[in-house]
Structures are given as structure tokens and as C-alpha cells.
Design a protein that fits this description.
The complex is a heterotrimer. Chain A is mainly α. Chain A has one domain. In chain A, about 75% of the residues lie in helices and about 0% in strands. Chain A is built from twelve helices and two strands; from the N terminus they run ααββαααααααααα. In chain A, α1 runs parallel beside α6 and α2 packs antiparallel against α3. By secondary structure, chain B is mainly α. Chain B is about 75% helix and about 0% strand. Chain B has twelve helices and two strands, in the order ααββαααααααααα. Chain B is globular, with a radius of gyration of 20 Å. Chain C has a domain of about 60 residues: ACT-like. Chain A, domain 2 (Alpha-Beta Plaits, 2-Layer Sandwich), CATH 3.30.70.1150. In chain C, the strands form three sheets. A six-stranded mixed β-sheet of chain C has the order 5-6-7-3-8-9, with helices on both faces. The radius of gyration of chain C is 25 Å and the shape is globular. The two termini of chain C are about 35 Å apart. The relative contact order of chain C is 0.13. The chains are: A mainly alpha, B mainly alpha, C alpha/beta.
């Protein structure tokens, strides 16, 4: 309870400091919302002319995309500190956190919660989800709702585990920016589209190495059951809600292990 | 206060940035990889959309791919840091910068030019060459088209630079211009045709784009390259691009003067 | 007096990846990094008692910051052990750091864009400081550190001296028993430096807080600490009083003699323990060690054989000695 109150206090502080530049702060969430919408608007225009991509119509595509945006919104609320980990280490923040009587992971999470971006991404995800689910006429029942909620959490944890893993690598390697660009950002560019349009090696990458497929494709397929699901083991749509929890646990262990190599060379 | 207007000083800025970028060889390999992946996905999606068709709405698949290569390639090369002024206003060094015997806008432009030249050579050219082995990229329609394309691409960059200057100078009033810059980039991404060639834009929106500077940045150069705008017709487009540059420059210049005055009065 | 910190045979070895040049080397680095082992701290032991004020000095890279980081729980020692306030700084980190404070001259812990009082309020929550104690401490530090005029201002509008005072207050709000100061006067002007030193002295003497201090400015040490630990190349080369350093290192003396005429003094230099460090016209400078040469006999010898018009003997001051150590260290 005390921890939660502190998280909120940290958040208020970050928000307040952004509000020192009022106009910019007010537009910040909107800017993120629009920035992320750009790709959606483009796909929407594309499909006005072309109607479908590999059998997926615009509503189904938006549904697929909504998972990416919504999970990212939650992700940056909790994992921005690990995303920008080297910056933080270079600024000496990690030393400072080690000098304060609170959990290290907790401090990294709460002092970096980016509410503005989270609202931007999250709202876009939510709008897309509600709109597309409405168009698709999903037949909601308790199982489905529960499945969606757990899948979203799992989706957040999959990406969080990646950030945590890459941050842990920075204790032993000099620079991990490039590794993160390859593993996360470049792979994420593939993630919005139906897995089936890609070549086998990219599918392998998205399922087994950087498992974005479990963030959106398999959870969406649990509901949509599009024909191209036949290319993949059906079991994957059932294990999707668990993948994140397992990966995060593994990543956390690796983080604990790597922390002992911290050199504190910030100055 | 006399400012230096010796062009060699500014070329020195350009050269410094260019050379400093060359040090990070690994970063630049990564840059190529990033661009390749981005272009690869774009090609893949257009391939899927076209399916078995060769021509859709009068536009061939090769034309689409070539436009994407050129305009996204240029977009990747034309990176302008919108935070240059903002950073100086935030940390308070702007007043000091204005007192230096160097034209600050000239320096900004020269440094950006260094970065862009570097990216054109290290990123744009290699990716285009790499992709030409894999995908059918059309050659320029004619040699004249190619020359006109170069001119148009330079004008396109100037349009982009002027838009960026306007956003940058808002920092005199807002200090942080992150949001504004992001929103500007959204407009450019969607409306310039860099990602979605404007042929596929719904007509209702295309009508409005006519009245904005956005198509002048990447799409006009690409069309000239393809011969979609015939060499005989380029005059009209050059005039349009130039008019936009002048109009945007005037706006940014007024903002610069007012903003500078504001800094002098407040003392940073 | 009760022991606050006990460092026993501390060693810290870093595994540093060796950078290879060139593109291939860069790739090789990424996938097969090569390491070299560097001993940053090599077998250092010491005891610090309650109420002590101890200065740590040493060149950059001498192992001074690594030692301080092990004492404050940021790094764990490779070998040896630290016991501080009855705890192990790295193993009982959370319990330990609640009782200590740390100030880094170059890195503020205050939010750049917010009034400093907001940063203080956050620290109250982080350290779980009871309201009453927090208010008392805040009032006390506002008064002593003279912060009233700027406590509502964001850090970016403060002068360096004001920021430093605010940072010190921030590190002390939870009434730590042990406080680490890392270069707290760096970049400050003389007046601001004096204010900070005065406060540190007050804290140490009146509030009984144990202080560990690192700095490049000898004046800081002379004015705040009784005890000095010098670290060089990972080893402790001195541990004692500030005054004692002169007898320990400052055994070299310099004799400046002005003669009536330009003598050839090579005769004097034949004594192996006397060095002539400068000979310009009639003015000559000799360097010798106390234990080798008796000053009296040297002067006597000079007076007997030459016509001397002026003569001065100087001992290097502490600052000079320390500068020597630093230069040697680098």
C-alpha cells in the first residue's frame, strides 16, 4: 500500500515537472496518440483501395494492431526505465537508487513512469480495440474477456522481459543500444501485420526469438480464427496468455544475476 | 555586432559533423540495417496488396516500389533535429549563443547539412543499391528526369527545413517543442506520400493536400524521377516548391526576429 | 568510541572488456568480448569511529571512489568485508542505506524542473520519514543552510552554491548517522565553499554525524577533517592526522641561497643526497632530505666557503604534497 502510494507520488512529480512547460505537456499525449495513429491512418487509406491484405480486412487488421498499442501503453508505464536503461546508468541514477532504502526495480519503474506517452499509446489501443471488436461482432463471454485481459498482461510482460533482459546485458557488455534496436525496435516493425504474410524465417523470429506473435497475432487469432492460423500449431493460441509470465520470470532471474557485475562507472 | 558571413566557416561546420559521424562505423551499419528492414516490410506489404496483379489503378508495382525506395530513403536521410533551439532555451545557453559572431541559423543549417550528406552517402545510396539486386527498382525515366529529380529533391529538403525551423522557433515561447515537432512529423508522414504514395490517397484528402507544402517534399521528386511528371512540365512544380520555400521562410524569419527579441529582453 | 565502519582487507577487481579497434574488432567485441582484470582496490583495511570526520584523497582512478562505493553499498567487494553501522552495506542494502546519506557534487538528486521542496517531499515518502521529524529537520536545515529564499524555486534557476546546499539538505532529511560527501565543493566560489565547509563542521561537531569526505581541494580537508586516508593505485598509503602528513611525506626541504657572486657550486653537489634544482646567476636552489642532511651543517658549510647574501629554507605545504601524490598517481 505504502509502495503503491509512493508510485503515485513519483508519477505526480514527473507529471508536474512536465507541466512546467504547459502547452507542451497538454499536447504531449495527443502528440503520441497522433504519431502512433499515423501508421494506422496509412493502413486505413491503403485498404480503402485494396480491400484486404492476405484475407484480413481493415477491421481485423485494426484488431490485430490494437494489442500492440495497448500493451505498449501499459509497458511504458512500467518499463520506460529499462528501455532507457543506459541513459539512466550514465546519469548516475542507478547509484542514487542503490543509495535509497527501496527496491531497485521498484525505483527504476516508478521514477520513469511515462504517463503522457502511456495515455497516448493506451488510448489508441483502446479506441482501436473497441471500434474493431464492434465491427467484427465479437461474441463476448466471460472466458473471452478473461482471455483478453490475461493476454494483454502477458503481452506487456513479454516486452517488459525483453527490456529487462537487454538492460541486464548492459552490465556485461559496453553498449546495448544496437542490440535493442535489432531485437526490439526492428522486430516490432513486423509485429503489427498478420504473421502469415512473412517468410518462414521471420515467422520463426517472431514466434521463438522475439515472441511478438504472442503479443498480438495469437491472442487475436483466438478470437478471429482466420484461415491462415492453419500454418501454425493451434496450441499457441492457448498458451499465449502464459508466455509473458514465464519469460518475465526468466528475465528477472537473469537481472538478479547480472546486477552483481554492476561497475558504477557513471562518473 | 558583426556576424560572420564567410561561407567557409559554415562549410567547416558541415565538414565537422560529417566527419564526426564517420567515426561510428557500427552505428552506421545499424542505420543501414534499420532502413533495409523498414523498406523490406514496405515492399512486402505492397507485394501482398498487389498479389498477382501487375497494375492497380494504372500504377504498376515497380512504380510503387521505386517511389517507396526514393521517398522513404530520402525521409530517412533528411533527419533534422527539431530540438536544437529548444535545448538551448531550456539550458539557458541561447542568449550566449546569440552573442557569438556566428549566424546561429547558418550554423544550424550547416550542421544539419553535414548530417544529411553523410546519411545520403552512407545510408540512402547503399540501401538503394542493395535493394536494386532484389527488387525491380525502375531506372530514372531519362537523364534529364534524373537531373530534375536532384534539383527537386534539394528543393524538397529546403521545404522540410523551413517547416522544421518554424517548429524550432516556437521554442522561444514554449521552451519544449517535443509535442509540436511530433505532431508536425505526423502530418509529414501521412500527407507527404513518403509511406503511402499519394496515388492511393482518397480523392477527398488529395484535394486538400494540393494546398499544403507536404507533397513538395518527397512525392514531387519521386514523380519527376519516374517521368510521371514529364520534363516539360517540371517548371510548374519547381515554382510551386520555391514558392513554398519562400513563404515558409518568411514566416520562420518573422518568428526568429520576434523570438530573438524576447530572449534579449528576458536575458535568457 | 563505537566503531561505525570497519573495512577488512577490501579488494575490488573489475572485469573490463577490452576494446578492439576497427569494424571487425567491434563485431568481435559484441559476440566474443575479451576481458582484462583491473584491480581498483587492492587490500585496504581501516576502522572509522563514531563522530569521526575522515577525508579520502587520491588521484582519479586511484581507487578512492571505488572504496567509497563499497562503503556506501553501491558496489560489493570482490574480497574482504565491510561492516558499517553493524550491517553489511551490500547484503543489507535497504536497511543500511536508510541510515546513511550521500552527496555527490557533480550529480544532483533534485528534480531539475521542480521547486526543491517537491523533491524534499518525495524524499520524505521514499525514506518513510515521520511527519513531525520531517518538519523539524526541514525547518532546521532551511535555517542553517539559509534556503528560505529559494526553497520554492526549481533547481534550474538556482546558483551552483544554492543547489549544493539544497542537495546537502536533501541527503540529511532522514537524519543519517553516517554521511558521504563526494566532491561537495567542486566548482563553487570561495564564499560558497566556506559556507559548505562550515556546515559540514557543524554537522560533525554539533550533531555528531560521522563524515566521510572525498575532494580534490585540500582546504576542504584541512578545515573539516582531522583524519586523512590517502589511496594510491588501489592501496592505502597514508592513514593519520592531517598534520601528520607533513612528517610522513614532507621530509624534503628546499634551501634557496643567494650568493654574493656567481660561484661554481658543483663542489656542494658532490654530496649525493643534495640535489641542485636550479642555478640562475647568483641564486641557487638545493633540495635535500631531513634524514640525510642536517640543515645546520649544510648552512655552516656554505657560510664558511662562500659569501652568502640571503638564505631561505622552505618545507613543502600539504597542498604541494598532495599534488605530488596526485601527479604521481596519474
Amino acid at each position: 500500500m505504502d509502495t503503491f502510494a509512493l508510485f503515485i507520488h513519483y508519477s505526480l512529480i514527473t507529471i508536474k515537472s512536465r507541466f512546467q512547460y504547459k502547452v507542451d505537456a497538454i499536447f504531449r499525449s495527443l502528440a503520441v496518440f497522433l504519431r502512433e495513429s499515423a501508421s494506422i491512418i496509412i493502413i486505413y487509406f491503403m485498404l480503402l483501395k485494396f480491400e484486404n491484405i492476405n484475407g484480413w480486412n481493415i477491421d481485423e487488421l485494426l484488431f490485430l494492431f490494437s494489442f500492440i498499442f495497448f500493451t505498449y501503453g501499459l509497458l511504458i508505464l512500467f518499463f520506460t526505465g529499462f528501455r532507457d536503461f543506459e541513459n539512466m546508468v550514465n546519469k548516475g541514477s542507478l547509484d542514487r537508487f542503490l543509495l535509497r532504502p527501496r527496491g531497485l526495480v521498484f525505483q527504476i519503474i516508478s521514477s520513469n513512469a511515462d504517463w503522457f506517452a502511456a495515455i497516448g499509446h493506451g488510448c489508441l489501443g483502446l479506441v482501436l480495440f473497441i471500434y474493431s471488436a464492434g465491427q467484427i461482432n465479437v461474441d463476448w463471454n466471460t472466458t473471452l474477456v478473461l482471455y483478453c485481459i490475461v493476454s494483454v498482461i502477458s503481452g506487456v510482460l513479454i516486452q517488459g522481459a525483453l527490456f529487462l533482459f537487454i538492460a541486464s546485458l548492459s552490465f556485461t557488455l559496453i553498449k546495448v543500444t544496437n542490440i535493442r534496436n535489432i531485437l526490439y525496435w526492428n522486430t516490432r516493425k513486423f509485429a503489427g501485420y498478420p504473421l502469415s504474410i512473412f517468410h518462414g524465417s521471420i515467422q520463426f523470429l517472431l514466434i521463438y526469438i522475439v515472441p511478438f506473435a504472442f503479443v498480438n497475432y495469437f491472442p487475436a487469432q483466438f478470437i478471429l480464427r482466420k484461415a491462415d492460423l492453419i500454418d501454425f500449431p493451434i496450441a499457441y493460441i492457448y498458451i499465449a496468455p502464459c508466455v509473458g509470465f514465464v519469460l518475465y520470470a526468466l528475465s528477472y532471474c537473469y537481472w538478479r544475476y547480472s546486477l552483481r557485475f554492476y561497475k558504477s562507472t557513471g562518473n | 555586432m558583426t556576424k560572420v558571413f564567410n561561407i567557409s566557416v559554415y562549410l567547416a561546420f558541415t565538414k565537422t559533423v560529417f566527419l564526426s559521424k564517420m567515426v561510428y562505423k557500427f552505428d552506421y551499419l545499424m542505420g543501414i540495417l534499420n532502413t533495409c528492414i523498414q523498406l523490406f516490410i514496405a515492399c512486402l506489404i505492397w507485394k501482398t496488396l498487389y498479389g498477382a496483379q501487375e497494375i492497380f489503378n494504372g500504377i504498376s508495382f515497380s512504380m510503387v516500389v521505386t517511389t517507396i525506395m526514393i521517398s522513404q530513403g530520402l525521409a530517412n536521410a533528411y533527419t533534422i533535429n527539431d530540438q536544437m533551439v529548444s535545448k538551448k532555451v531550456h539550458d539557458g545557453t541561447i542568449a550566449y549563443t546569440l552573442l557569438l559572431p556566428i549566424n546561429f541559423r547558418g550554423q544550424m543549417f550547416a550542421e544539419t547539412l553535414g548530417e544529411i550528406l553523410f546519411r545520403l552517402i552512407s545510408n540512402f545510396l547503399p540501401t538503394i543499391i542493395l535493394f536494386s539486386f532484389v527488387i525491380d527498382i525502375l531506372p530514372p525515366d531519362s537523364f534529364v528526369s534524373f537531373l530534375f529529380f536532384i534539383v527537386s529533391a534539394v528543393l524538397g529538403f529546403l521545404v522540410l527545413w523551413m517547416i522544421s525551423s518554424i517548429v524550432q522557433f516556437f521554442a522561444f515561447w514554449m521552451i519544449s517543442v517535443w509535442s509540436l515537432s511530433t505532431i508536425k512529423n505526423v502530418f509529414i508522414t501521412v500527407l507527404s506520400g513518403a509511406v503511402l504514395p499519394l496515388w492511393f490517397m482518397p480523392d477527398s484528402i488529395l484535394k486538400w493536400i494540393e494546398y499544403t507544402p507536404f507533397s513538395s517534399i518527397y512525392f514531387v521528386p519521386s514523380r519527376i524521377y519516374l517521368g510521371d511528371i514529364a520534363p516539360a512540365d517540371v517548371g510548374e512544380f519547381f515554382i510551386k516548391q520555391s514558392l513554398w520555400i519562400i513563404a515558409l521562410y518568411l514566416i520562420s524569419h518573422v518568428m526568429w526576429l520576434k523570438g530573438k527579441k524576447r530572449i534579449v529582453i528576458q536575458g535568457g | 568510541m563505537e566503531t561505525v565502519i570497519e573495512g577488512k582487507r577490501l579488494k575490488k577487481t573489475f572485469k573490463i572488456s577490452k576494446r578492439e579497434k576497427g569494424l571487425f574488432g567491434h563485431l568481435a567485441n559484441l559476440f566474443l568480448p575479451k576481458y582484462i582484470h583491473k584491480k581498483a582496490v587492492d587490500d585496504i583495511s581501516f576502522t572509522i569511529k563514531k563522530g569521526d570526520a575522515v577525508g579520502f584523497i587520491g588521484a582519479n582512478g586511484a581507487g578512492k571512489s571505488t572504496t567509497i562505493k563499497m562503503l556506501s553499498g553501491i558496489l560489493s567487494p570482490t574480497e574482504g568485508s565491510v561492516t558499517a553501522l553493524g550491517l553489511s552495506p551490500d547484503k543489507d542494502r535497504i536497511e543500511y542505506v536508510a541510515k546513511i546519506g550521500a552527496i555527490f557534487g557533480q550529480k544532483s538528486q533534485l528534480s531539475w524542473d521542480l521547486p526543491i521542496i517537491d523533491s524534499f517531499d518525495l524524499l520524505q515518502k521514499i525514506y518513510r520519514i515521520p511527519d513531525q521529524k520531517y518538519q523539524e529537520n526541514l525547518a532546521m536545515f532551511t535555517k542553517i543552510l539559509d534556503m528560505k529564499s529559494f526553497i520554492e524555486q526549481p533547481v534550474r534557476q538556482l546558483s551552483l552554491g544554492q543547489r549544493m546546499r539544497a542537495d546537502i539538505a536533501a541527503a540529511l532529511l532522514h537524519s543519517p548517522e553516517l554521511v558521504f560527501f563526494d566532491e561537495p565543493t567542486i566548482g563553487l566560489d570561495v564564499v560558497a565553499k566556506e559556507k559548505i565547509r562550515e556546515f559540514i563542521r557543524y554537522m560533525n561537531k554539533e550533531l555528531g554525524v560521522t563524515i566521510i569526505f572525498t575532494t580534490h581541494d585540500m582546504q576542504d580537508i584541512e578545515k573539516t577533517c582531522e583524519r586523512l586516508i590517502i589511496i594510491d593505485q588501489g592501496k592505502k598509503i597514508y592513514d593519520g592526522t592531517v598534520a601528520g602528513i607533513k612528517t610522513h611525506f614532507g621530509s624534503e626541504r628546499k634551501l634557496v641561497v643567494k650568493f654574493e657572486q656567481d660561484y661554481d657550486i658543483s663542489e656542494v653537489a658532490k654530496t649525493p643526497s643534495i640535489k641542485i634544482i636550479s642555478k640562475k646567476d647568483r641564486s641557487k636552489e638545493f633540495l635535500f632530505k631531513n634524514e640525510d642532511i642536517e640543515v645546520k651543517s649544510l648552512i655552516q658549510y656554505l657560510f664558511e666557503n662562500y659569501q652568502v647574501s640571503d638564505l631561505t629554507i622552505s618545507e613543502p605545504d600539504i597542498e604541494e604534497i598532495v599534488r605530488d601524490i596526485y601527479d604521481k598517481g596519474i
